[in-house]
Every structure is written in structure tokens, then in C-alpha cells.
Amino acid sequence: MAHRLTVANEKGGVGKTTTAINVAGALSDRRHDVLFVDLDAQGNGTVGLGLDASYTDDGVSLYDILTDLDAQQQIDAVIRSHEEFDVLPSHIDMFNAESELQTAMRGRERLWMALDELHADYDYIVVDAPPSLGLLTDNALLACRNVLIPALPEEASRHAMDILFEHVNTLEDGYGVDIDPVGIVVNRIEVDGEANRMLEWFDEQYESLPLWRIRNRVGIKRAWTNGTSVFSHAETTDMDERFQAIAAHLERTE
Questions:
Q1: In the prediction, which pLDDT does 192 show?
Q2: What pLDDT is attached to residue 84?
Q3: What integer is the mean pLDDT of 36-55?
Q4: Which of 14, 60, 37, 247 is nearest to 139 (CA)?
């Protein structure tokens, strides 16, 4: 079975999609077969990877896979190819998925059920969760059972981290599962006093978890603009090795 990982934080703007794409890219660069799942209705990962047409396609989409049990067997047909890894793209109809799943049978387990229908063999599945703690994020957490947490080195991260861990505990109690935090990725670090204070707080508060520091680099932004991870972009950065370190950690702990 593929090792499943979701990248989640209820706070938006923390580099969640960038982290998910570059971790998927690092795993692919290490010769693994990877599926990237864009569970965010905004479709930033889908569009960012150059799959704009899939986001508005009239055919069966991820929305159908999640909301219609009969459509789940078509999940392989929804997957698209990318130069680095396969992609299960989001769709504009996903904005309606939360309300549909609210009253659906096993509404928080639909992604879990759908991924079990995959015929393609993947080493890793990386799920980019929405920036909220609704049913779609619950689907990601329950389907993957492993969560990588992106954050920013700013005061608001304290509250967001508390909320996420409380929510994970509630899901664990309600479903009788273990959801393991893989580590924390602190993004867009600048050299300033607040960043240093927050990095010290992360180290103290979550001393048992790996902490990866991603500094603000133009190369990461340009790779995004190019529709790839940093590993398929011509311009390298000194942050490439940080994403490689995350991938290596996943290999050791799966």
C-alpha cells in the first residue's frame, strides 16, 4: 500500500500547497512513483501544476469521486499525468462538496474509500488539504493518517497549531485511529527577531517533531510559476536539500 501523507493547516497562506508540491517533487526525484491529490476547492495545486483545463472539465471529477459512491471506481480515469508525478486534480464543483458530504453516509471517509479503489501502484500519495478544518480536511486526515504541518514564523501560528492538534485528537477519538504528525515545515523565513523567536518556540513546544526551515527564496516562487516543483525547475536553490530531507525522513519512517 502506498504511504499516504496529507499536508494540512487550518490557517491559509502558510505555504501549504507549495510544501505539498515540493515534497511530492522530492519523492519523485528520489525515484518514487507519486500521486499528488489536490483536495482544495480553490484548485491552487491543480492550476499551479498547469492542469487548468481539468479544473473546469465537464467529465467525471474528484467532486464526483467523493460525493457519488458509484463513481469511486472511476478514480483512475480522473488522474492526470504531470512531468514529475501523477495528479488527482481538484475541480470547481468541489466548492459544493462540503455541503454534500455533510449529510452523506460516511461523509468523512470518502477519500479513504476512493484511494482504496486505485488500480495504479504508487509509493507515495501526497494530499494537499484545504486551509480549513471542514469535512474535506477530515477526509484527508482520515485517509492518510500522517500529517505534515506547514506554518509561518509568526505569532498567529501558535493558535493555528493548537486548533489543528485539538482537531486531530477529536478525529482520533471519534474514529479509533491514530493520526501521526510527521513534522513541521516553517516557510518563508526571513532574518528578523520575530522569526527567530517563533523558531525557538516551535523547537520548545514540539521538541519531539522534526522541524524543517524553508527560507524565502525566489527560486521556489519561480518553480511555482513554471508549473513544477523546484526539482524540475532549471534554477536550483539552497532549499532543495530541505525538501529532500523531508522526503528522506518519510522513507525512514514509513
A1: 77
A2: 96
A3: 96
A4: 37
